[in-house]
Fold this protein.
Amino acid sequence: MILHKKLFFYIITGFIIATVIGTVSHEMGHYLVAKGLGYTASMNYMSTNWDSKERPFLDSCFDTYSQEIENNQPFPQKEKFDAIETQMSKDIFWFIMGGPLKQCLLVLQAC
C-alpha cells in the first residue's frame, strides 16, 4: 500500500475543518431556537445552555413549596408555576431539534 502524503494531509485537514464547522453549526441551531423562543442562551464549542427568564421565580417556588410541587398539591401561584413548566417542557423538544435541523439545512444548502 502506497501512502500519498499530500492526499493524507488534505484528508486529515478536511476532516478537522468539517468537524469544527459541523459542531459549531449544530450548536448554533440549538442557540437560535432558544433565542427565538425567548430564552437566554449561551453557546460554546461543545454545548449550548439555555434558561428561562422566569428561572428566579421557579427556583423561589421550588425552594418554598417543594413538598407541594412534588406531591402536586396547591400552593400560591401554582397556576403560573405550572404554566411556565408546561411551556418549557414543550420548548425542550424544539431546543433539542434545533441542532439536527440546522445540520439538515446546512447539508441542503451544500447540494
